[in-house]
Amino acid sequence: MSLYTRLEQRLERNSDDAGPVAGELSLLRIGMIWLAANLVVTTLLTGTLFVPGVDYGLAILLIIVGTLVGALVLVSIGNIGTRTGLPTMALTRGPFGTRGSLLPVSANVIILMGWSWVQAMLAGIALDFLVASVTGVSMPVLWAVVCQTIVVILAIFGHEGIARIEPWLAAVMLAIMAVIFITAFTTFTPAEFQAIPVDESIGYTPILVLDVVIATAISWTVLSADFNRFAKSSRAGIIGSGVGYSLSTIISMSLGATAISYVVLSGGEAIPFDPVTIVEPFGWPLAVVIFISVMATNTMVVYGMVTSVVNAIPGTRVKFLPTALILGLISIIGATFFGLLNQFTTFLVLIGALFAPVFAIMIADYYIIKRGAYTPEILSARGGRYWYLAGVNWAAIGSWAAGAVAVYVWTYVWPTPIGATIPAFALTFALYLLLAWRERSKHLQLESRHLTDVAAEPAPNA
Q1: Using an 8 Å Cβ cutoff, are 216 and 71 in contact?
Q2: For 128-145, what is the mean pLDDT?
Q3: What architecture does CATH give domain 24-344?
């Protein structure tokens, strides 16, 4: 038996293919997975965008508030995964329809692929800094490819491999991050950090900072049900992911804001979203954090891409291993396109435009329209409750389009005083409820009829 066949059979036994799963991971294990997930270079470097655009103390406050707001969306979607056993994109069949769900699934794969490329590039730059400081030879593209290859190998082992490595990676990263924070605040006082002059020419306002932090949570929500479906209870999933995500985001972004502030106080040039800028003053500890964080997080990202494709169409047998290999190869090739790093803020806006409305619709549909339950018909390839009109729920599609346009308009055309993500989420949520309320009434009628039929059945011992 070949190595490929043995690996494929192992993945089959561990239920990484399509269909619901029975969760068994504890609150602590879920928490550690999410803690490691967002102790990541992209989140850390996002923190470098904020200072000195806003003052240091305000940046930290906005990071905390935005993270907690975004976490509400993340845990709400993750809990649907825990209760149904289905990954995030499979759940989009509920509101969008069996065929309509292919639109958010396709967008999700594209977005996750972009995340994967960006993180591999940043890991390659950090690793190249370490190697070049010893050998004098700089080859960031090569190291990006090496990092992404390791990620693909880890992702092939699915949720089982991730659950094993994430807690250890989280512990190592937290320890090194603590050293970096200590270095920063023993070199300069908190008052000196707070006294850094605000540079309004950078273009970051407090509202924009808040919007970017919330958009970061939205970007992670695409994976929330993928991993929370393995939680053994709703309590484990909600508390584990909520605490793990919030802590990791606050720590990572705050470290980024602190590191760039350290560069400013040291008299260096504060180049935002540049790993070398913050690695140079701290040396190998920060470079190691960046490398390990990509191993932890990008593994989840690649796994999420594969899960989305495997679960895209119910009733089809798309195998996990060949899908992982194909998408993994694309992710390795794409990691060489370093020009994408210059478009990261635009990339975050794109994520918000595409997925804040999607999650507003999913939350409204599951918790209000469908009253907290999806029937087994969600696994049907054709027909049934989630077929809607030829497989598409146009109420969801229309609401999504309106929300996505709103994010773009409120970001670039008519900026609002509260950013774009929150108002677009609220608009989409309200619009979908309005368009789908008749579906809720129909659901109540079906429930009532079912209860009447059950009551009319003779007792077992009659």
Answers
A1: no
A2: 89
A3: Orthogonal Bundle (1.10)
